[in-house]
Amino acid sequence: xxxxxxxxxxxxxxxxxxxxxxxxxxxxxxxxxxxxxxxxxxxxxxxxxxxxxxxxxxxxxxxxxxxxxxxxxxxxxxxxxxxxxxxxxxxxxxxxxxxxxxxxxxxxxxxxxxxxxxxxxxxxxxx
Length: 127
Known about the structure:
Blueprint: E1 3-7, E2 10-13, E3 18-25, E4 33-39, E5 46-51, E6 58-60, E7 68-73, E8 78-83, E9 92-99, H1 103-109, E10 116-117, E11 121-126
Parallel strand pairs: 2-11
Antiparallel strand pairs: 1-3, 3-8, 4-5, 4-9, 5-6, 7-8, 9-10, 9-11
């Protein structure tokens, strides 16, 4: 049974930082590209970042580029999202997801085609 579990969310002031983690089990983690998505209250879920399975190539939404960094540790079956210079508009539930597709396809396809999802972790940025 595949499980993805996010952690690291919380309340932070604007300008602060958080590091999210997503631990995976029940799958061959190194075969999967990983994506981070978020859903703000009253809005649709949106793409945030993606990281490839082999060369760890990363892709970001324009809204987080230069502030967020995705990374992964295949030995620990874990993907991370380092979030710096947080803004109130970053407030959302953050989800990790896994796909056998290439990471660059996540940028255009978004959540469509992701094979597995975590339950999310809430990030609240106060002004």
